[in-house]
Amino acid sequence: MSNVLSLGAFGVLFIVAGLLIGLAALQEGTRRSWSLLIGGLLGALMLGLYTMASFEGSLNDMLPLRYAVVTGFNVIIAGVGGIGLWINKRRT
Fold first, then answer.
1. 60's torsion region: left (phi>0), alpha (psi -120 to 50) or beta?
2. What is the three-state SS of the chain?
3. Which of the residues 29, 73, 85, 87 has an alpha carbon 20 to 30 A from that of 57?
């Protein structure tokens, strides 16, 4: 994983994804949908990379499977944001 990004860069991207998803709870309309979409995709991408690296180096598959489930939740969050954007676009 260190060949892709440094540990500090991964941390910053995780924080940005978390902040975007958290801010979506306080926003309305199109901004909420964009925050969910970008935060969910960013979180899914980062956790997906982390999951793949964990599967490669782990002796027990339970920990990487937990990361894979959380990655799935991030994909669902991104999907909710995308559907929200689609619904807002159809209204106008």
1. beta
2. CCCCCCHHHHHHHHHHHHHHHHHHCCCCHHHHHHHHHHHHHHHHHHHHHHHHHHHHHCCCCHHHHHHHHHHHHHHHHHHHHHHHHHHHHHHC
3. 73
Q: How far apart are CA 3 and CA 22, in angstroms?
A: 29
Nearest to 71 by CA among 92, 87, 55: 55
Is the distance from CB of 51 to CB of 71 less than 8 angstroms? yes
Average pLDDT, 10 consecutive residues per value, the chain (92 residues): 80 94 92 95 92 81 87 95 92 77
Q: Are 66 and 86 in contact (CB under 8 A)?
A: no
The C-alpha angle 55, 57, 61, rounded to 5 degrees, equals 40
Q: How far is CA 3 from CA 27, 53, 62, in A?
A: 36, 11, 25
